[in-house]
Specification:
Pfam families: Proteasome. By secondary structure, the protein is α+β, with helices and mostly antiparallel strands. It is built from nine helices and ten strands.
């Protein structure tokens, strides 16, 4: 019997070890003398694929995508040798007898603690809270971001946590560096797209539209892990705006923000300045940010080696830290 097996029917199985033997099996199909011999070999062959896909930790239900191929094979058999019975049920029955894979999806089950907290969300919050402390303040005229970069390590390059998105925007993040850099790249691409394609400045909340949707989708589904970084964007759009982004997709406009390690201690100080932010000058905003960092890191001396200060007024500028270290 001659079967016209196409190569593209095996695309779904190219990652399995059994798929490497497909040419060997199909080359032997024409040598079968009876249809029963062919069907017995085919059943054994597809069971082997199912077992192999499970051993290599593929999705269990992906194994049954081969059923469309099985129907194609039997259709070709029927065209060459006459009608034959559908073996789909027999193959599924044999496959279900195979042991299930011990590999599970990432976070496929939400685990709750007795306090009613979702474990994956707690892990992400802890990741952000372990990052570098960042303090941001703004009023309608200007904004300031002060970042504590940590104690420099002699044998390692310092990790950059503060980035210029455009001439009128800066972003600081806390958490996993790779995820933070991914967010930075997204923001840069969005700003460039709006300025070049639409020829207009981007809205400070619209800038996070796609990112917020993706982060929220990761929060409520199990096929992707959550973003491991949160951040603060300082941008000029009808005045200076501060936008805080959380890994769960929450985006909100704030007057002052603090993220990272010991951020709650910094927020305690920032609360004292909330009512007077609009009347503050650039120097006063910087001093308020430094006071918040001093409260968060009382045992550490703040200096130019562990502090970065960026200001947004007419454009983004880097402030000389030594001016405020007296």
């Amino acid at each position: 019997m001659e079967l016209l097996i196409q190569e593209d029917t095996f695309k779904l199985f190219t990652t399995t070890s059994s798929a490497r033997n497909l040419s060997f099996v199909t080359s032997k199909i024409p040598t079968f003398n009876t249809l029963s011999e062919f069907k017995a070999c085919l059943v054994s062959f597809f069971k082997d694929i199912i077992m192999s896909s499970q051993d290599e930790n593929l999705e269990y239900y992906e194994s049954f995508k081969m059923l469309s191929f099985i129907e194609k094979v039997f259709q070709e058999v029927a065209e060459n040798e006459g009608p034959c019975f559908d073996m789909t049920d027999e193959i599924i029955k044999g496959a279900k007898q195979a042991p299930m894979s011990t590999m599970s999806n990432y976070d496929d089950v939400s685990v709750f603690t007795p306090e009613g907290k979702v474990k994956p969300l707690e892990y992400i919050r802890n990741t952000v809270e372990l990052g570098n402390t960042t303090v941001a303040l703004s009023n309608a005229r200007m904004g300031v971001i002060v970042v504590h970069t940590g104690t420099p390590v002699p044998n390692a390059f310092p990790t950059q946590k503060l980035f210029q998105i455009s001439d009128f925007a800066a972003f600081a993040f806390s958490g996993m560096t790779n995820d933070g850099l991914e967010i930075v790249k997204y923001l840069v691409d969005e700003v460039i797209w709006h300025e070049t394609y639409k020829n207009q400045p981007v809205h400070h909340l619209q800038l996070f539209e796609h990112l917020s949707f993706d982060a929220a989708y990761r929060t409520v589904t199990s096929n992707k892990r959550l973003y491991g970084a949160g951040g603060v964007l300082m941008i000029r759009n009808s005045g200076v705006k501060l936008v805080e982004f959380e890994p769960t997709g929450i985006v909100q406009v704030v007057k002052a923000a603090s993220i990272g390690n010991r951020s709650q201690s910094a927020k305690t100080v920032l609360e004292n300045y909330i009512d007077s932010l609009e009347d503050m000058s650039k120097e006063q905003l910087i001093e308020a940010g430094l006071n918040a960092l001093r409260n968060a890191h009382p045992d550490e001396v703040l200096c130019k080696e562990n502090i970065e200060i960026w200001c947004l007024e007419d454009s983004v500028e880097v402030i000389d830290v030594e001016r405020f270290m007296s």
